[in-house]
Amino acid sequence: MPNKCTSRLRGCAASGTLIAAAAVVGGCLPAPVRAAPVEPLPFPAQLSTVIDRGSIEGHAVRVLRFASREALAKVLSDTRRAWSLPHGGGSVESVSGPWRIVSRQSEGGFQTLQARSAATGGTEGLVTSWFREASIPRADVDLVGVLPTDAQVRRRFVALDAGRRSETVVAVDAAEPRMVAERIAARLAASGLHSAPIPSAPVRDEGDAIARRYIGRGSELALTVHRQAGGSAVVMHLTEARP
Predict the structure, then answer these.
(1) Which has the closest alpha carbon to 53: 43, 62, 65?
(2) What is the structure's pLDDT at 163?
(3) Which pLDDT value is given to residue 174?
């Protein structure tokens, strides 16, 4: 039976897979927002920052992008060796499509390495550091609070970059998409957010798939609701203006 530490590491690996799946669009890694300070990796690599301060499932998180000339097998071997040392606390591994994922417990939290072979040679990927507590400021709009009462939150991700806060909530509900969307719309209106046109695109408001945009004082929200087995899937992304 896996111990509590190993179970938490596997949880971080699973969440790391979610980051990769969400971040990679069209086979491309997320663009770095700035050059990152040099942090030690067990292999030579160039690092840049993707998310400087974020929060996933209540844990503070930082995401770096790396590019290395080393082959994927060498990157994994070096990481496995370094992270399996006594001071490294041991590691666990998993696979998700082309991604190889290695996670370890580190001082103050956890680290996850997500790596794949780069099309131009070498290896590319993400290094995610998880800390025990998140200290991201609260939003003026509580996204979980605007969900229908029976909705269940699957994922919640918060990031802060240059003073600009963004938050994404993924949830499911047993009701039909239109009913879910209308319930959310009523609660958003009560929170000061009102429907607005989607730039360069018509409002998608079909029976099985709904996409809407809402704006308020200093904030903007994108809502999508689509039918899935057993009800509806909801994704809300809230972006607040820089102070």
Answers:
(1) 62
(2) 65
(3) 95
pLDDT tens digits for range 162-217:
667 788 899 999 999 999 999 999 999 999 999 998 876 555 556 688 999 999 88
Provide the residue ranges of all domains of the chain, joining segments of one domain with +.
4-131, 152-240
b/e per residue, 167-185, with b = 16+ CB within 10 A?
A: bbbbbbbebebbebbebbb
Residue 218, pLDDT above cutoff 80: yes
Measure the CA–CA gap between 47 and 64, rounded to whole angstroms: 6
76 within 8 A of 115, measured Cβ to Cβ: yes
